[in-house]
Design brief:
Elements lengths: L2 E7 L8 E9 L4 E5 L4 H4 L1 H11 L8 E7 L11 H11 L11 E3 L2 E2 L5 E2 L4 H11 L2 E5 L3 H4 L7 E4 L2 H10 L26 H13 L3 E4 L6 H6 L10 H14 L13 E2 L7 H5 E2 L4 E2 L1 H4 L4 E4 L7 H5 L2 H6 L1 E5 L4 E5 L3 E6 L18 H8 L4 H5 L3 E4 L18 H18 L9 H7 L4 H14 L3 H17 L7 H9 L2 H4 L7
Helix pairs in contact: 2-3, 7-16, 7-19, 18-20, 19-20
């Protein structure tokens, strides 16, 4: 038999589409060609494969070898196809039994000595192989990552020779073992002194999955508060954790299998570009908003960000998905993150401070505020002032704040009510779901309409106020939204009033 078929997986965004590696040995002068839209790293596989087969004391056939990676219109990149190409050559030349290849999928880069080197994007491939009902053979270095998929049947090998021996004898390769999960202690909310209003807003944001904007002078604790939000959120489900881990797996940044259940917290610098935020490149990779999927994205110094970079957040904030389109291809990445942003009230940072040290004119303050567009602010549910604390509240013997564990217990109770009611956090309710689950009394409707008129709010802001009020009611274990819940929610639209940015 001069033809062999080997199953493998490509990487396209967070998907791992199936690739059939077809190897044909024909007559003519010895040569090897790879077709099927291979990139440079795949075309160079012929030299790695030849050396690996010869170093394993196997015969590299002196034939005209044609390798087809199907489907032909799917771009293939990286060294992940080295192992299936080598096995296809060995099977077509009769050195490995053909029938043994049918139940397996193979991934792995080959060293010149035949050693298997790890590749990226193994976690999506393990999920796809499990859905296809095949076993997956991967390098030992990827074993811990693939073992996170409990329903996948994965085996690991260190060399090409080990894989050939397994196929020839029928003996199984060792299965990878996932490392025990490690819950690293995160920052505790008790470290935040004072700031009762901001702490309350952080609890509301965690309970309903709402986006949050913190406004205050330098050093008042905005970054301190933002870093403690992940510790208040419910633990990620296995499905959510696998989605986040799959994005990290394809990003090239490396995945820590022991800490894969932790919700991500991403804090890019304000000099990051739009591509760094949403992802991109010739071979599209996920950006910061996708790496924060099912976690928290913290943007400090919000007005200092490039305007174009901020505007790309608008669609993902609504849809939870970002599509990176290029001339040759496009990729879709999930981006269901919770945004926490922080900014100073003016360029010097001291507008509204009782010390009166701010010298910024109203025009300067308005221009500074104008760096953040209204449509983006409209999508942020909670706008909260974080004032400068008096020195007495910062003394070592000053009372500590409420610890994260106690606050998190209230958050979990509120999330349980939302899951039972709609199966999702309040921040993700659609317009129809909001109308059903966030009913207001007639006097409260009149109060909300008056606030919308006075603050000149959009319909989007109006619905977000109602959803925040529903979260506040859930924290109070109230089946209905009461007037205090609604007034508190309206009070969180500080940027709509313009009060926070008025100079002293």
């Amino acid at each position: 038999m001069n033809l062999a078929l080997v199953h493998s997986r490509a990487r396209t965004g967070v998907r791992a589409p199936a690739v059939r590696v077809e190897v044909h040995l024909g007559g003519g002068l010895p040569s090897m060609s790879i077709v099927g839209l291979p990139e440079a790293a795949v075309r160079e596989a012929k030299d790695r494969v030849r050396a690996a087969i010869q170093c394993a004391q196997l015969e590299f056939p002196a034939r005209r070898i044609t390798v087809n990676l199907a489907p032909a219109d799917l771009p293939k990149g990286g060294g992940r196809f080295d192992l299936p190409i080598a096995l296809g050559i060995l099977a077509a030349s009769g050195q490995v039994p053909l029938e043994a290849l049918n139940e397996y999928e193979f991934l792995g880069e080959l060293g010149l000595t035949g050693q298997l080197r790890e590749v990226d994007g193994v976690l999506p491939a393990a999920l796809a192989a499990a859905d296809a009902g095949r076993k997956l053979i991967i390098p030992a270095g990827n074993g811990a990552e693939a073992a996170l998929v409990g329903r996948a049947e994965v085996q690991v090998a260190r060399t090409l020779l080990e894989v050939c021996a397994m196929l020839s004898t029928g003996a199984s390769l060792p299965a990878p073992v996932a490392p025990p999960p490690v819950r690293l202690p995160g920052p505790d909310l008790r470290d935040v002194r004072g700031q009762l209003h901001a702490r309350r807003a952080l609890e509301v944001a965690a309970a309903g999955g709402h986006h949050l904007l913190l406004i205050g002078p330098p050093g008042c604790g905005k970054s301190l508060l933002a870093a403690r939000l992940p510790g208040l959120l419910p633990e990620a489900s296995e499905e959510e954790a696998l989605e986040s881990a799959a994005i990290t797996s394809i990003s090239g940044r490396g995945l820590d299998p022991a800490n894969w259940r932790a919700r991500p917290f991403r804090s890019p610098h304000h000099t990051a570009s739009a591509v760094a935020l949403v992802g991109g490149g010739a071979d599209p990779r996920p950006g910061e908003i996708s790496l924060a999927h099912h976690g928290v994205l913290f943007l400090d110094e919000l007005p200092e960000w490039e305007r174009r970079a901020l505007e790309v957040l608008r669609e993902p904030l609504e849809s939870g998905v970002v599509t990176v389109s290029r001339a040759a291809r496009s990729a879709e990445f999930p981006a269901r993150f919770q945004l926490v942003a922080a900014m100073n009230p003016c360029p010097c940072g001291w507008a509204g401070d009782p010390s009166g040290r701010c010298q910024c004119s109203p025009d300067v303050v308005r221009r500074y505020r104008g760096r953040v567009s209204g449509p983006l602010l409209d999508r942020i549910d909670l706008h909260v002032e974080v004032p400068r604390l008096p020195p007495a509240e910062l003394r070592p013997d000053a009372p500590e704040g409420e610890p994260s564990d106690i606050v998190r217990a209230r958050v979990l109770q509120a999330r349980a009510l939302q899951d039972a009611r709609a199966g999702k956090p309040n921040a993700r309710l659609g317009q129809a779901e909001t109308s059903v689950t966030c009913r207001l009394s007639n006097p409260d409707h009149a109060l909300l309409e008056h606030a919308v008129e006075q603050l000149q709010l959009s319909a989007r802001s109006m619905h977000r106020i109602v959803r925040v009020a529903r979260t506040i009611a859930d924290l109070a274990d109230s089946p209905h939204i009461r007037t205090p819940h609604l007034t508190e929610a309206i009070g969180y639209r500080r940027m709509d009033r313009g009060v926070a940015l008025e100079p002293a």
